[in-house]
Protein: Type I restriction enzyme HsdR N-terminal domain-containing protein
Amino acid sequence: MYLPLNKTPESPEQRKELIGDIIKQQEELFAQSIGYIQRLVIQYLIERGYSSDDIELNRGYEVVVSEKEKFVTSVDIVVRLQEKVLYAIKCTPASIDSWERFMLAFCRVVEPYQIPFAMVTDGREGRLIDVLTGEVKETMDIPKKEDLLRLLPSISFIPYSEEKLPKERRILYAFDAIKCCPTCNI
Structure:
């Protein structure tokens, strides 16, 4: 990343442009690191027997918060078997703990049923979340495809409580707002 040191901007416009350039460079580095983590996770899934047909990248979902509010949110990787999303995976280069709540809300809201499992990972460490129980384990150990297929008949695909759903949508909406950088268009 190139930063002009000891350079005083000659105008507010030039200052704004320099700040915008710095932010864009940081966002590019962040996106590259997420792409790298995605590749690591995809390689891991392939080693566990999943095929490219089972894996979907950057899956977006439209979420309706109210009559006047809706937004599109996404997750880095979903694993789908027999027409059901079983895992939603968030790749982040830092602060994996802070994304656990996002993943709980995401898995409760985006499909007509709760996605049963979520993972947040930086590529080295991970948190595996059982969405139905809320249990979190410090691991990146996703079952092999053959084992998950055997477990599939015993997995519950139940919707989240209608009374609690609006709160989860709002939580997801708040996280989505945090992800959006207000200075991206500088």
About this structure: The longest strand covers residues 70-81. The first helix runs from residue 12 to 47. Residues 180-186 have pLDDT under 50 and may be disordered. The two ends are 18 Å apart (CA to CA).
